[in-house]
């Protein structure tokens, strides 16, 4: 029973304390005056009566009512019902004014009203929430006062305060109000009546009647509905209102926010709505109770409460919106604001609300929408039912609550199976096993559920609902009996709705236990006309407190004498519902492993215990794979359990190893939470399995399974402890009851719900029974039980202290390995228990001050473990009520336990070291090259798999990695050789190696192998040959040995000098690795190099030290002016007489013979081939040649990095050259390197100009200057130099200036060279592409014409007469901007076109072009260099500014490329896929840029303009571009000899810094590896792919060079320039004088030698055309990733050291040949080819290689002398040609190719598909007009026969032909055309005439739908009969045709029809 109202309070406006703008309220009267003992009077009521503040108002307002909620210190809620009305009073302001006549503060002009109204509140304080009853009672009191009813107010209030009602139980009213005053009793007699009231009680019937009602004695009656079960919240219709105000999604957000402990703030202008919203939110959270700050109405004065850091649900009036925003804004913005009036919920960005797990969220939303909007479902029905109105608000409210109850039923079902009961007496203590619950539900990853289970609300839920013996309610019933139903209904929303309606009915009944009675009667104030008249309204009178107090006292006295009301005790056992396991099984989460896998696990364990070790070994890998699944892990623990006898299982060494491996593998996949209870089941097993090590020394399995996070997780140990305690307490009571004896042995534990469901049920049932009996026991029995339980817990604590020390102390305690573990840090915060008060306060404190194992100072393992165990013991003992004495005893015991265990472990550790090592596979020796020596012999390592999935078997195929073997370090390579760990492929050999010189990154790693529990030291070694070695050293390798290995590796990777590299040290003993002083036999070379250097010194005439090596400044550190370079060490002063420096005078006669070496150098041979000059003995030169070979640099004095002989213009003397060279970086002045044999245009290369040189270079010669300064003369000389080059071109003399850069030739311009006209648009387009966007163009340069021209683009192709249809041959690719790097903006250069307005298509007016003049020389320069500088309009050259890729860009791009192609670890992140990483590396973009510029230069040279490439220092990008241009333009460079010559000339002689860019020595280590040459080879590879018939060498040749240019096996690519090579004496090595014939010093010699033996480098498709110019596509979409980057052959390692591969193959073949030929079984011819293991080209060779191999083996069998493969090939080709001539077939070089499918390859016709758009697309159309449909055009016969197999004239394809009239498109006339029906191609083609070769259009027959007779249309040919017309309907349009007559028309129709039917 409870009082309906505890206090009645009258609160009024305080006139005395009125200060400032706000008034105050004060309590006028309160009843009772004294506080109730059980319920003190709440403070601060006056604030809550007027939350907006107490204010006087000028007009009377209507009475208002709302309920505030106050929470006291014991978290009891008090409901304050406030009824407020307004009373008139004279304006205090006016009175004040009269009192003090003149008041300065008064504002004149404000008229004050004579009367104002003050608020007065009647407040009821109650612990019950009956809003409507309170409204009625207070309303009645007000009515009695206002309408002056005859009832005394004291009576009404007295009755109200003495009214007692039941809290719950639905048994309506057990007590009528103690006093009900009859209306007839006059007020004077009230007291007398009171006295009689207690004597005569009403009769029984009346009592029954009054049970339902209360009356306050003013003629009123009210029915009070008390809920049947007070644990269910009462919500009225507030939940339905909340959903109407905010909507489903918003309320769900608030619901999840409240459960996951966020701050929620409601805003509304109505107080009652705030209260209702807060009440509704709490109602839908049932069965969880909100335990944080809860203030539905917060007064304005207390707004600071909002800045509390804890979660809250608070309501604030919208009046304070701005103040609230400020407060919330000043905090961290983590408050969720729900505006009830506006219907919005605002969630700040920083707040992440975890929502319900997925299917549940969807189902909840669906159910809610069916409740709130039932019409939604049938909105689309054709015949909707007549009425589907939603339920009434009260019912709808319960339906919504039912949805949430149903939701919690799904979320929490099975929770009782995860309860651990650890004490029954005196009070039940219950813990929840969170990990097991989440694991069983397969929701460990779910953020929402994790937060809810960790929250305070759930902790309260467990403590309230955990006890097994208590009253039950609707939720308990739902969890126990309806889970199955919920699960079956999940998929059917209608069944769900039925269930929800049933639940709603129960909720409604609970809240409204009986129907509303008709006797409900409450007076309201009469609304009379004068009612609001202030004069009528009396002030609320003061009440007589004595009278009221009398009522209260009498009621109290009566209650004392009345017999106590005994409520029936409803406690009972709480049912647990179905266990979780079954439910999840049906979802299929658990059954991930098939029965077959479990069988494998069982068999393996049986084999181990039956000692069948070989069988077990075979099954082991499969078992370890199966153990990834949970079922297999459970199976393993069950199987192992069967082999434990009396808690012990002694094994031999091998069995022990296997069992430990399986345990480790099982634990490895357990999370630290151990949600599946696997670690829990293993815990007793690891202390059971052991092996004998020696006399009395036993090693247990726990010493080998410690490396797992789960052992360091405090929550795991707590859950285990509680589980064990529960078992023992259960056993305790079962024994006491004489039931089963010792049911739970300590070995068989309950590990979460799966394992011990039956036990758990028993424990809770037992606890329930014991709780029921507790009151009946005597005191002695009670204390005995408490004591027994306590000692059970205590003994378990000791047991666990031991267990924990087993698993936390490492075997070798000296190593302190545990200290690095994370997770044993501050475990307090993550413990899954909710009790935190510590009994053992002081002791726990001392341990908590240090933070577990993370403590830096305490490195002692023992202390750390003691601290961890102490913390655990404190925690669990406090929670399970262990006495303080016992706790202290434990604390003293723990250090002894740990110490004792350490001593045992020391002995075990000592003995375990003496065990014989397990048999490991023998080390395989690698095959070494001649001259390669081992630096370190094999160290046993494991090769771990990296991010490439092929070798791990992840993509199918065997698991080749991880592999076990050894790593060898030789003078040349780093080699791993071993066998896979997987025994199924154990006989295969895995080899991975790379040259030591290619090592780019070395990184130490820690590797945990799945087999062993130890974490091993490892290294990750990355090589620029796209290889990665990830190795873990075996435990037998000492760590210092690994360090020695690293040091040796570094020493070999970065030798002091280039002479320390393998190419120099090969064949010498390892001692002379660094210093090499062996005398060189090759005296003549030495002499030459010495003399060259000496004479250079002598000539210059100044001393310097030879040791000072020339080292050009690095790219990054170069200064802008480079003054120091002008003072080069061997620079020649200008005054020196040049005549004295002829070659003959500097070289002694004895050495002149070696001069021929210089002349034989690659450059000279090539210059002679190109006709750029010869070098005769007398050094005279013919004057009429435009160029000469200059010897100005023969001493390398002008430019150290250039070759000795250079091509310069004939007219330029050497002295000028020396001066000019100063203007260029590194003195690399422009020299000619190639000449176009057709147009005689030349290609020059140089470095970029110095910054100061640029402006000087472009300065107009006519500019006035102060005097002839040095700079001017240099710039004049530079101009002369340019002019000399231009003059050398034959076209310079022609009268008409031809194409300009963006040249645009219109049809009426008559120039003879029409082929050039057609080329111009391309160059303009190319140029725009290459130059990039608007923002990069320099301010002004080269008379600005370029900027203007570059904008121009041809959008229409001029028609050309038939003569010019065969332009100079060439293959066309196209260049389109990659978008990212050169997005071309068509508006470049508009600054110059202000006078000429551009035409609509973006080109300027024609007149502008007629005035422009062509440039003879284009300088490709760097954009950043070309700032400023003007030029006059008569100069003949132009500068093309382009963006160069910086060396750093290349370096970074390469790093990313390597990581993309050879990732170090597998990743599933979408952002880390291969293609994404490849794109981010931008490698393809860089290739695109280089190719783009190269194609532009090729095009310019081909149109007759010379080009000078002048970029960066002239040795990186310049070299790439110049080499590619020559390769594309000159077929000679696409042969073996030509390519070698190209690389020797452009890369080696012209000083590409191979050593520096390859970081080959210690000095260049810091600069890092920059693969400029590799980039060039990749570009060649791209061109090779597009033109496979143009190259004599194969792709393998390019890969071979790419591998060996970094391998340092050959000397070819060492050193940075010819000068350095001469100095070391390696430039002119004479062939005959090699010490070791096995060692090839030059890569070219090696290739030549190998090429003679095998066709590996030869391209069988080689079939070149004469003078063919290639123009590859350079779009990124046309580029392919080079397979050099991604392929690998694990069977033999890289295939680029040919001898090794061959010897390896011979050895393997020898092994495979059996000793005795086995004749019984036929040998299979099939091979299994494994990706990434076998070399596919060897196992599955191409057809021609296979035939050549067969030929060789036949020759060997027949005993014939073997013929060289090249001779065989040449013979076959000659025969083919002869046959072709005899048959009169169109000849082409390699008819073997007739059958090969080359359709995807390109010959000279690149078909262009036009793009739309003005100025932005590039028109790369054919060099003749093409029609819109692309048909093959007959070009030169040699290519057209190959690429267009069908020529339009071939008769066999013309199945039917003749003339037809064809109607043109709209408004076009009929025209006669020659039509050809081609069955072979399935086309109908038409030509202008029969003779015409060029097709005008094609109709594809595949698109034809029908052929039907037609009718003549407008403009049809006259005099032709109607039947001659027919129509051809295609999918795109209808063609109208007309034949000569009707039979002809019929014939055509039949022919087309037959073609269609054939198809």
* Tally of DSSP helical segments: 61
Helix content: 25-40%
Structural class: alpha+beta
Q: What is the number of E strands?
A: 42
Describe this structure in words.
- The strands form eleven sheets. The chain has a seven-stranded antiparallel sheet with strand order 25-24-23-22-28-27-26, with helices on one face. The protein has a seven-stranded antiparallel sheet with strand order 39-38-37-36-42-41-40, covered by helices on one side. It has a five-stranded antiparallel sheet with strand order 3-2-6-5-4, with helices on both faces.
- It is 38% helix and 12% strand.
- With 1959 residues, it is an alpha+beta fold.
- The two termini are 96 Å apart.
- About 21% of the residues have low confidence.
Quick recap:
With 1959 residues, the chain is α+β, with helices and mostly antiparallel strands.
List keywords for this structure.
extended; 1959 residues; alpha+beta; 61 helices; seven-stranded antiparallel sheet
Q: What topology emerges from the helices and strands here?
A:
Elements: E1 2-3, E2 7-13, E3 25-31, H1 45-49, E4 64-71, E5 77-90, H2 92-99, E6 115-126, H3 131-146, H4 153-162, E7 164-165, H5 190-197, H6 204-211, E8 213-214, E9 222-223, H7 238-246, H8 248-259, E10 263-268, H9 271-284, E11 293-295, E12 312-317, H10 321-330, E13 335-339, E14 344-346, H11 358-372, H12 393-412, E15 419-423, E16 429-432, H13 434-441, H14 447-454, H15 456-465, E17 469-470, H16 474-481, H17 483-489, H18 493-511, H19 545-561, E18 572-573, H20 580-587, H21 595-609, H22 613-626, H23 630-642, E19 649-651, H24 653-668, H25 678-686, E20 689-694, E21 697-700, H26 714-736, H27 752-755, H28 757-773, H29 779-808, H30 841-848, H31 861-879, H32 884-913, E22 934-943, E23 963-970, E24 973-980, E25 990-995, E26 999-1008, E27 1015-1023, E28 1027-1033, H33 1039-1053, H34 1062-1065, H35 1083-1100, H36 1123-1126, H37 1143-1146, H38 1155-1160, H39 1162-1170, E29 1187-1190, E30 1206-1209, H40 1214-1221, E31 1231-1235, E32 1242-1246, H41 1251-1258, H42 1270-1287, H43 1314-1331, H44 1345-1349, H45 1406-1411, E33 1417-1422, E34 1437-1442, H46 1447-1461, ...
Parallel strand pairs: 10-12, 10-13, 11-12, 19-20, 32-35, 33-34, 33-35
Antiparallel strand pairs: 1-7, 2-3, 2-6, 4-5, 5-6, 8-9, 13-14, 15-16, 17-18, 20-21, 22-23, 22-28, 23-24, 24-25, 26-27, 27-28, 29-30, 31-32, 36-37, 36-42, 37-38, 38-39, 40-41, 41-42
Helix pairs in contact: 3-4, 4-19, 7-8, 7-9, 7-12, 11-12, 12-18, 21-22, 21-23, 22-24, 23-25, 26-28, 26-29, 29-31, 29-32, 31-32, 41-42, 43-48, 46-47, 48-49, 48-52, 49-50, 49-52, 52-53
């Amino acid at each position: 029973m409870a009082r309906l109202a505890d206090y009645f309070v009258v609160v009024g406006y305080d006139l005395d304390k009125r200060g400032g703008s706000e008034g105050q309220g004060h309590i006028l009267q309160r009843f009772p005056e004294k506080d109730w003992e059980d319920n003190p009077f709440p403070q601060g009521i006056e604030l809550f009566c007027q939350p907006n503040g107490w204010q006087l108002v000028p007009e009377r307002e209507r009475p208002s009512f709302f309920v505030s909620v106050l929470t006291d210190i014991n978290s009891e809620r008090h409901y304050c019902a406030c009824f407020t009305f307004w009373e008139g009073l004279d304006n205090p302001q006016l009175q004040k004014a009269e009192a003090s006549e003149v008041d300065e503060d008064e504002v004149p002009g404000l008229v004050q009203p004579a009367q104002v109204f003050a608020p007065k509140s009647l407040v009821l304080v109650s612990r019950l929430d009956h809003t409507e009853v309170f409204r009625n009672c207070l309303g009645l009191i007000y009515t009695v006062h206002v309408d002056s009813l005859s009832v005394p107010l004291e009576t009404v209030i007295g009755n109200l305060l003495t009214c007692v009602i039941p809290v719950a139980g639905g048994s309506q009213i057990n007590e009528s109000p103690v006093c009900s005053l009859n209306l007839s009793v006059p007020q004077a007699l009230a007291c007398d009546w009171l006295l009689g009231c207690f004597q005569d009680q009403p009769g029984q019937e009346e009592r029954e009647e009054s049970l339902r009602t209360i009356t306050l004695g003013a003629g009123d009656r009210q029915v009070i509905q008390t809920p049947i079960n007070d644990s269910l919240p009462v919500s009225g219709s507030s939940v339905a209102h909340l959903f109407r105000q905010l909507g489903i999604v918003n309320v769900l957000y608030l619901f999840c926010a409240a459960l996951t402990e966020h701050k929620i703030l409601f805003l509304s202008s109505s107080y009652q709505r705030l209260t209702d919203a807060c009440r509704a939110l709490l109602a839908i959270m049932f069965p969880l109770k909100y335990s944080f700050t809860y203030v539905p109405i917060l007064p304005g004065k207390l707004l600071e409460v909002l800045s509390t850091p804890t979660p809250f649900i608070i309501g604030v009036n919208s009046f304070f919106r701005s103040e609230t925003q400020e407060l919330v804004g000043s905090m961290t913005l983590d408050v969720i604001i729900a505006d009830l009036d506006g219907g919005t919920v605002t969630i700040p960005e920083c707040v992440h609300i975890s929502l319900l797990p997925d299917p549940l969220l969807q189902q909840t939303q669906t159910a809610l929408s069916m409740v709130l909007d039932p019409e939604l479902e049938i909105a689309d029905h054709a015949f909707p039912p007549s009425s589907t109105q939603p339920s009434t608000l009260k019912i709808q409210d319960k339906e919504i609550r039912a949805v949430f109850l149903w939701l919690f039923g799904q979320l929490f079902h099975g929770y009782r199976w995860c309860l651990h009961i650890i004490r029954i007496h005196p009070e039940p203590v219950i813990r929840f096993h969170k990990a097991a619950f989440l694991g069983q539900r397969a929701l460990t990853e779910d953020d929402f559920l994790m937060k809810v289970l960790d929250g305070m609300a759930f902790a309260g839920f467990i403590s309230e609902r955990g006890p097994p013996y208590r009253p039950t309610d609707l939720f308990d019933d739902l969890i126990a009996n309806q889970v199955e139903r919920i699960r079956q209904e999940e998929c059917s929303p209608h069944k769900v709705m039925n269930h929800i309606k049933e639940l709603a009915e129960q909720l409604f009944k609970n809240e409204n236990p009986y129907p509303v009675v008709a006797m409900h009667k409450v007076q309201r104030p009469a609304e009379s006309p004068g009612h609001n008249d202030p004069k009528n309204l009396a002030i609320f009178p003061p009440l007589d407190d004595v009278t009221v107090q009398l009522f209260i006292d009498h009621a109290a006295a009566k209650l004392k004498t009345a017999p106590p009301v005994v409520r029936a005790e409803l406690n009972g056992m709480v049912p647990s519902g179905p266990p979780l396991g079954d439910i999840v099984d049906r979802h299929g989460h658990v059954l991930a492993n098939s029965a077959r896998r479990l069988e494998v696990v069982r068999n393996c364990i049986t084999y181990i215990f039956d000692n069948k070790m070989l069988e077990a070994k075979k099954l082991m890998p499969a078992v370890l794979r199966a153990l990834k699944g949970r079922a297999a892990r459970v199976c393993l623990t069950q199987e192992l359990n069967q082999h434990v006898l009396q808690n012990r299982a002694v094994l031999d060494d091998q069995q022990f190893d296997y069992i430990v491996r399986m345990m480790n593998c099982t634990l490895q996949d357990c999370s630290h939470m151990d949600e599946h209870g696997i670690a829990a089941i293993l815990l007793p097993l690891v202390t059971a399995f052991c092996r004998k090590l020696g006399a009395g020394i036993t090693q247990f399995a726990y010493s080998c399974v410690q490396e797992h996070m789960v052992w360091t997780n405090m929550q795991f140990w707590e859950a285990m402890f509680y589980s064990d305690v529960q078992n023992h307490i259960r056993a305790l009571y079962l024994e006491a009851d004489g039931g089963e004896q010792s049911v739970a042995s300590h070995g068989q534990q309950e590990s979460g719900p799966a394992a011990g469901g039956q036990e758990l049920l028993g424990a809770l049932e037992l606890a329930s029974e014991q709780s029921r009996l507790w009151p009946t026991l005597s005191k002695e029995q009670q204390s005995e039980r408490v004591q027994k339980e306590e000692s059970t817990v205590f003994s378990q604590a000791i047991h666990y202290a031991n267990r924990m020390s087993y698993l936390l102390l490492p075997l070798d305690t000296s190593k302190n390995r545990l200290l690095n573990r994370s997770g044993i840090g501050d475990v307090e915060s993550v413990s899954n228990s909710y009790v935190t008060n510590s009994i053992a306060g002081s002791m726990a404190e001392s341990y908590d001050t240090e933070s577990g194992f993370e403590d830096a100072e305490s490195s002692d393992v023992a202390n750390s473990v003691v601290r961890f165990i102490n913390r655990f013991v404190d925690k669990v003992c406090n929670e399970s009520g262990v006495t303080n004495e016992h706790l202290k005893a434990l604390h003293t015991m723990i250090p002894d336990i740990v110490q004792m265990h350490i001593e045992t472990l020391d002995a075990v550790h000592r003995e375990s070291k003496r065990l014989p090592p397990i048999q490991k596979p023998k080390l395989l020796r690698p095959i070494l090259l001649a001259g390669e020596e081992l630096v370190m012999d094999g160290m046993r390592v494991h090769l771990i798999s990296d991010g490439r999935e092929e070798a791990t078997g992840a993509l199918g195929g065997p698991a080749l990695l991880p592999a076990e073997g050894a790593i060898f370090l030789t003078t040349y390579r780093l080699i791993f050789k071993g066998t896979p760990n997987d025994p199924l492929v154990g006989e295969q050999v895995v080899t991975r190696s790379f040259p030591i010189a290619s090592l780019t990154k070395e990184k130490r790693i820690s590797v945990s192998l799945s087999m062993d529990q130890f974490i091993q030291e490892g290294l990750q070694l990355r090589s620029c040959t796209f290889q990665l070695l990830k190795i873990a050293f075996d435990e037998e390798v000492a760590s210092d040995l690994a360090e020695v290995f690293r040091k040796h590796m570094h020493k070999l990777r970065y030798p002091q000098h280039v002479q320390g590299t393998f190419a120099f040290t090969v064949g010498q003993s390892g001692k002379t690795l660094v210093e090499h002083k062996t005398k060189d036999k090759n005296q003549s070379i030495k002499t030459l190099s010495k003399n060259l250097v000496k004479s250079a010194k002598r000539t210059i005439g100044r001393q310097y030290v030879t040791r000072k090596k020339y080292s050009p400044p690095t790219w990054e550190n170069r200064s802008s002016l480079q003054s120091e370079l002008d003072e080069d060490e061997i620079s020649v002063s200008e005054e020196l007489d040049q005549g004295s420096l002829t070659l003959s005078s500097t070289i002694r006669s004895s050495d002149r013979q070696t001069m021929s070496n210089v002349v034989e150098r690659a450059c000279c041979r090539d210059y002679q081939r190109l006709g750029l000059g010869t070098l005769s003995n007398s050094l005279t030169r013919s004057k009429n040649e435009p160029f000469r070979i200059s010897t100005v640099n023969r001493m390398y004095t002008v430019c150290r990095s250039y070759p000795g002989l250079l091509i310069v213009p004939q007219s330029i003397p050497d002295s000028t050259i020396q001066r000019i060279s100063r203007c260029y970086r590194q003195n690399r002045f422009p020299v000619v390197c190639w000449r176009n044999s057709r147009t005689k245009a030349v290609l020059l290369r140089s470095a970029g100009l110095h910054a100061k040189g640029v402006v000087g270079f472009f300065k107009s010669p006519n500019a006035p200057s102060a005097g002839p300064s040095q700079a001017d003369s240099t710039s004049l000389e530079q101009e002369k130099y340019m002019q000399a080059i231009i003059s050398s071109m034959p076209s310079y003399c022609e009268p008409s200036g031809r194409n300009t850069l963006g040249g645009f030739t219109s049809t009426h311009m008559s120039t003879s060279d029409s082929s050039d006209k057609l080329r111009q648009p391309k160059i303009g387009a190319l140029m725009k592409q290459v130059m990039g966007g608007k923002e990069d163009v320099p301010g002004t340069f080269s008379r600005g014409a370029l900027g203007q021209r570059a904008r121009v683009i041809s959008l229409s192709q001029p028609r050309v007469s038939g003569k010019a249809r065969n332009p100079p041959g060439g293959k066309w690719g196209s260049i389109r901007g990659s978008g990212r790097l050169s997005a071309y903006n068509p508006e470049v250069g508009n600054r110059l076109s202000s006078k000429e307005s551009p035409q609509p298509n973006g080109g300027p007016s024609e007149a502008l072009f007629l005035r422009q003049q062509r440039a003879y020389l284009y300088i490709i320069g760097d954009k950043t260099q070309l700032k400023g500088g003007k030029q006059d309009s008569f100069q003949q050259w132009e500068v093309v500014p382009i963006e160069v890729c910086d060396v750093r860009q290349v370096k970074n791009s390469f790093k990313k490329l390597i990581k993309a192609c050879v990732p170090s670890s597998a990743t599933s992140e979408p952002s880390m896929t291969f293609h994404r990483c490849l794109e981010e590396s931008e490698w393809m973009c860089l290739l695109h840029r280089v190719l783009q510029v190269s194609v532009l230069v090729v095009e310019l040279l081909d149109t007759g303009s010379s080009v000078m490439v002048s970029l960066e220092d002239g040795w990186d990008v310049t070299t790439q571009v110049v080499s590619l241009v020559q390769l594309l333009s000159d077929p000679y460079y696409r042969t073996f000899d030509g390519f070698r010559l190209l690389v020797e000339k452009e890369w080696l002689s012209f000083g590409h810094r191979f050593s520096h860019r390859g970081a080959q020595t210690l000095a260049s280590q810091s600069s890092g590896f920059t693969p400029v040459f590799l980039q060039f080879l990749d570009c060649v590879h791209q061109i090779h792919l597009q033109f496979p018939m143009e190259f004599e060498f194969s792709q393998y040749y390019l890969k071979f060079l790419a591998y060996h240019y970094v391998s340092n096996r050959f000397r070819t690519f060492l050193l940075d320039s010819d000068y350095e090579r001469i100095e070391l004496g390696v430039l002119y090595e004479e062939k005959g004088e090699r010490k070791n014939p096995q060692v090839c010093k030059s890569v070219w010699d090696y290739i030549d030698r190998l090429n003679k033996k095998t066709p590996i480098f030869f391209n069988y498709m080689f079939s070149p055309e004469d003078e063919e110019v290639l123009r590859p596509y350079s779009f990124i979409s046309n580029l392919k990733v080079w397979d050099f980057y991604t392929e690998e052959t694990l069977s033999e390692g890289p295939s680029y050291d040919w001898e090794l591969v061959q010897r390896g193959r011979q050895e393997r073949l020898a092994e495979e040949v059996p000793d005795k030929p086995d004749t019984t079984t036929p040998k299979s011819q099939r091979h299994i080819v494994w990706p990434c293991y076998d070399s596919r080209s060897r196992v599955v060779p191409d057809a021609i290689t296979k035939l050549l191999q067969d030929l060789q083996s036949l020759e060997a069998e027949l005993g014939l002398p073997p013929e060289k493969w090249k001779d065989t090939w040449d013979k076959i080709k000659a025969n083919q040609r002869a046959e072709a001539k005899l048959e009169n077939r169109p000849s082409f070089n390699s008819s073997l190719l007739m059958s090969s499918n080359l359709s995807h390859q390109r010959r000279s016709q690149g078909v262009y598909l036009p793009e739309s758009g003005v100025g932005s697309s590039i028109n790369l159309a054919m060099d003749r007009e093409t029609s819109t449909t692309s048909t093959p055009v007959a070009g030169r016969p040699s290519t057209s026969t190959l690429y267009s197999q069908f020529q339009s004239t071939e008769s066999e394809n013309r199945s039917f032909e003749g003339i037809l009239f064809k109607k043109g498109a709209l408004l076009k006339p009929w025209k006669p055309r020659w039509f050809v029906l081609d069955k072979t191609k399935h086309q109908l083609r038409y030509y202008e005439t029969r003779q015409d070769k060029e097709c005008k259009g094609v109709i594809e027959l595949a698109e034809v739908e029908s052929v039907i007779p037609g009718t003549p249309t407008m403009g049809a040919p006259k005099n032709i009969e109607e039947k001659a017309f027919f129509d051809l309907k295609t999918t795109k349009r209808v063609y109208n045709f007309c034949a000569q007559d009707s039979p002809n028309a019929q014939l055509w129709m039949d022919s087309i029809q037959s073609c269609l039917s054939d198809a």
